[in-house]
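Re: the 98-residue chain
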Amino acid sequence: MFVAEVVGNVWGTRKHCSLCDKRLLLVRAIDPLSEKPLGDAVMAVEYGTGAGPGSIVLVMDEGGSARSVLKDEMAPIRTAVVGIVDSVVSGGKVKTYD
């Protein structure tokens, strides 16, 4: 799992049937305290969190667990948004997201 910022939306004219009612987002891993980017953006499935561009989210980056969260073991996914981050506490420092 990692903390990421949603940096965009993804649209597709054709999707696997297990993704038809789900949103696709671009997320980029960040350092949760400094918000500095930690790599390239990846696509993640969003389902029910309400996350969108600008949101700080918790991302599940393991196929079996991501499919389990979506309750669809046949879905062709690896990465899923599983929550919106309100705050992070690490080493006595607190970072709150609006």
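Residues 2-11+19-96 form a domain with the OB fold (Dihydrolipoamide Acetyltransferase, E2P) fold (CATH 2.40.50.220).
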